[in-house]
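Colleagues,

Please find the record for the two-part complex below.
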Amino acid sequence: MGEPSVAAPDQAAVRAAAELVAGLPPAPALWCTGLRKRYGRRSAVDGVALSVGRGEVVGLLGPNGAGKTTVIKMLLGLVRPDAGEVMVLGRPGGDPAARARVGYLPELFRYQPWLTAAEVLRLHVRLAGAAVPPDEQRECLALVGLAGRAGDRVGGFSKGMQQRLGLAVALVARPEVVVLDEPTSALDPLGRVDVRDLVLSLKERGVAVLLNSHLIGEVERVCDRVVILDSGRVAAAGTLAELLGRREVRLHLTGVTTAVEARLAAAGPVAREADRFIVALPADDDGTAVPDLVRDLAALGARIHAVEPGRISLEERLLGILRSGAGEERR
Amino acid sequence: MTARTVLTVAALTLREASRRKVLRALAVLTLALLALSAWGFSRLAVAETQFGALTSGQARLVASQLLNLVMFGLSLIAALGTAFLAGPTLAGEAESGISLAVLARPVRRSTVLLGKWLGLAVFGGGFVVVAGLAQCLVVLVTVDYWPPNIVGALALLAAQTVVLLTLGLVLSTVVSPMASGVVAVGLFGAAWIAGVVGGVGEVLGNDGVARVGTVSRMLLPTDGLWRGAMHALQDPTALAVFGPEGAAFPFLSEAPLTAAYLAWAVLWVAMVWGLAAVAFARKDL
């Protein structure tokens, strides 16, 4: 008699817990905190935390030797962190099964030279434990422009073709997150455009991407968020809007009175060089600041020769962050 | 999943050996050795010494000794082949970057290592068995001698190859691919020489020198297994003819292997493989 009355609330509790868990947002595609790695006396990575949400495209930027590749290798279990936690698709990074739905193009990409391109893909499909039919594998090769070379030995491939093959390997096992470490380093301009389109199509399909690239323009075009590493630490991180939030407007004015100056100062911090003014606009501007300013300036009698709204590029912002970091160190 | 990965990697290793023309090179070397030995053995059958023609018993005795010598050549080819395959397969792939893409897959490093080891063991062991059997057939046809325990001999030769490739694997996790091949073959040669030195010590009744052979046979079981294989190949009358001094002769083995020594060889392979797995799992790529 007593047993059901004990078991029943348990079942209810289990169901409630299950519903609670089911209702939770999915764990990030990639997540790490407090990652540290020393090589001898040199600290390569020092307390890096970052997260790549499901379906999110995150760019990893930073100068040479900032620790980007080491962070990526620690996320994928290729390098053992000295400290820190890694979670891949909701499972601890130490569990190989966590990488079942991960695609990876290493910075140092090399594939078995004695295999053909199609055999390399078949090998990776088997290792991933995925069931990808041969047709889909062929499509994957076609996607990276190697449809005609499926039966050729990888040993005869150029650097650029091997990198294209690497992209196919990263994509072939139906990944939920793809890690691309310098995916365009060996590609011609056309190949770079291909990679950009590839990343955008992954984003459309809801595949998360962690992209390490020196080509800031590419990162700016495809990434939702950017993490900037410098000397093994996260120097800045955020969405492009957050990082590049500072918009500005350049004005060429004559007939500037004190009232005009006051109106300019009210819009934001002003930098002046003779008749040319640069006004930094607030980050939360909803697009009305510039027309309002122009209307008021005209009303105040200023003669307006030119108005150029501008956005700080990611490159300028990156250089700014890195220079200020270096400046602090020197001090 | 694990078994599938092991078999996939083992098949990949075998395919590498055949596609990189290792198989072809070994086949050419072996055919050369077989042809030379066939010629030599056929001359032996009609050889005359200063005392007249060899009796059939004498011919068998000489054939059994020569067979040991030729088999040593075969095992040397197998040793060189597997040691220089085992090195590049781990360290070389880590150096070139091939292992980055492979080990980022949902596989344990020890599973990949087991697959590599299995592939190399099948390759090296298979080579020794096929080439050794061919050699014995050559001897059978030319001088009508068949070893007393061919199965045991070939199994021990294959075991010797497995021991050496396991050594090559563990070395390649700690040193560069080229160095690991050189060191493995060097140790193989050193163990063999230590075995000969130990045999000389036994004949001279010098326990200290004799112990060199015993210790080296414990540290690296290649020489011990080789001596077991020789014993299984040679004509039983050879020992009676050479007497106790035979111990000093490098191509004559006094006694079959004990079960304890075989168990030690198995344990040795397991321990060294475990060491390789631990070193490989901890390696930063």
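Residues 327-331 of chain A have pLDDT under 50 and may be disordered.

Comments are welcome before we finalize the supplementary table.
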